[in-house]
Design a protein that fits this description.
With 453 residues, the protein is α+β, with helices and mostly antiparallel strands. The chain folds into 3 domains: 142 residues, no CATH class; 95 residues; 129 residues, Histidine kinase-like ATPase, C-terminal domain (Heat Shock Protein 90, 2-Layer Sandwich). It is built from 10 helices and 8 strands. The strands form 2 sheets. It has a 5-stranded mixed beta sheet with strand order 4-5-6-8-7. A 3-stranded antiparallel beta sheet has the order 1-3-2, covered by helices on one side. A hairpin with a 7-residue loop joins strand 2 and strand 3. Helix 4 packs parallel to helix 5 and helix 9 packs antiparallel against helix 10. It is rod-shaped.
Length: 453
């Protein structure tokens, strides 16, 4: 089963999860420590307030409430983290009691959620200190106000948290870059394997800028590709040698048949003609009829021998230029099927071709024309044989088409297999396809060539 995620994606998802959890834990620790710091600061502030109140009571007995309240408010104004409110009672009513003001009415740049997280809970917060000793002048109420401490913690913690996030992002990018760089040869390996499958055995991977583990894989791939290329080269050499031996054997057999059997058959024909003349002279109709039958059988045998010789070795390739031999091959079928348009174009240049290449092209063309007559009712048959030259190589291209395809499937018989083997043995490539929408069969073969000096 192929996973839908890549290795890079899986590793980076794991890294992301670890970094997110780490950042969350770090932020929770920062908030927890900051909250404890706020609580400790508020406790120390309350202790300081109580000491100031006791000191003011000792230094200024409550003889004059207004002086006492003024000096006490002045002393408390220097203490941080508190809010002092002085309530003046109205006639007939006691001093009013209000809830603690929030943040002393000041605006803050600290986010509200941070203030909420660091502020003590109402159940845990220290209650306001209410001094009734200055009554009837008024009521002095001291409320806790941790905003100053929260702002300080925010200013101290924000750079640390941002630095932490920056380090996590840099770490994530570093891991991602290193992982992509380390695994980049795998993508090249996949592409190279596809090229090997397509027959491009000269494909190689670059061995520089890879990790040690993947470097071993790259070396193994290059060795495999080299062995495959050497094996194919050796196989092509053997196949070409086999074709050469086969053609040489066919030439030898054809020569033997021609040299040995043809004289005997000719002699039989001569003797039969003499017998026929003698039989006619003696008016022996029975002898003349038998001689005529023997003469007919001998003629048929001679024709069979000629056909066999042509199959073993195309005599046209020995007697005619290559282009003329191909045109004569097409002319045979043109004369037999005049209702079909047989189009032929051969342009292979003036340089002589290798004998094996000429025989292979002749045989493939012959097989294409024969299959057209046997399996297709074509009205148009086009054959193109041309030479091409590139910077690094030269070759022969054979393109064959006919419009007699009535099926959606190609039957791969011995004819197509034989053509495939011949072309492949010489290092070439043969492809064919059906186009049912236009009832057309197309075959294309490419052969690398080595021009004879």
């Amino acid at each position: 089963m192929v996973h839908r995620f890549s290795i890079t994606s899986l590793v980076m998802m794991l890294v992301t999860a670890i970094l997110v959890v780490s950042c969350v834990i770090f932020c929770l620790l920062v908030i927890s420590n900051a909250r404890e710091s706020v609580e400790e600061e508020m406790e120390s502030t309350y202790a300081l307030i109580q000491q100031l109140i006791l000191k003011q009571e000792d230094d200024h007995p409550a003889v004059n409430p207004q002086i006492y309240a003024s000096e006490l408010a002045s002393a408390l104004s220097a203490v941080r983290h508190i809010h002092v409110r002085f309530d003046v009672p109205q006639r007939g009513f006691p001093p009013s009691t209000h809830s603690a003001p929030k943040h002393n009415g000041r605006d803050s740049d600290v986010p509200a959620w941070f203030i909420y997280l660091l502020s003590p809970d109402e159940s845990e917060a220290s209650p306001p200190i209410v001094l009734q000793t200055i009554h009837p002048v008024g009521q002095l109420t001291i409320f806790p106000d941790p905003l100053d401490e929260v702002e300080e913690i925010w200013e101290e913690s924000l750079p640390i948290v941002l630095a932490m996030f920056g380090m996590c992002i840099a770490l994530w990018l570093g891991i991602y870059t290193a992982l992509r760089w380390s695994l980049s040869p795998l993508k090249q390996l996949t592409t190279s394997l596809a090229k090997l499958e397509a027959g491009e055995l000269d494909t190689r991977l670059q061995q520089d800028k890879v990790t040690m583990e993947l470097g071993q894989l790259v070396v193994a791939f290059n060795q495999l590709a080299s062995h495959l290329e050497n094996a194919r080269s050796a196989n092509q050499i053997l196949c070409k040698r086999l074709l050469d031996v086969q053609e040489e054997l066919c030439r030898s057999v054809a020569s033997e048949l021609h040299d040995e059997m043809a004289p005997y058959l000719f002699r039989i024909q001569v003797e039969l003609l003499q017998l026929k003349s003698a039989g006619e002279a003696y008016s022996d109709e029975v002898i003349a009829a038998q001689i005529a039958n023997l003469q007919q059988l001998t003629s048929q045998l001679q024709q069979r021998v000629r056909n066999t010789l042509k199959l073993l070795r195309p005599k046209e390739l020995d007697d005619l230029p290559f282009d003329q031999a191909i045109e004569n091959l097409v002319e045979i079928w043109r004369s037999r099927y005049p209702n079909t348009h047989w189009d032929i174009c051969v342009d292979v240049g003036d340089a002589p071709l290798d004998e094996t290449v000429k025989v292979t092209l002749y045989r493939v063309t012959q097989e294409c024309l024969t299959n057209t007559v046997r399996h297709a009712k074509a009205t148009e048959v086009h054959t193109r044989i041309s030479q091409f030259n590139t910077t690094n190589s030269a070759g022969i291209s054979l393109a064959f088409t006919n419009d007699g395809c009535k099926s959606n499937k190609i039957n791969k018989g011995f004819g197509l297999l034989g053509m495939q083997e011949r072309i492949t043995a010489l290092g070439g490539k043969l492809t064919y396809t059906l186009l049912p929408e236009c009832e057309q069969f197309e075959l294309h073969a490419v052969l690398p060539i080595h021009l004879k000096n």
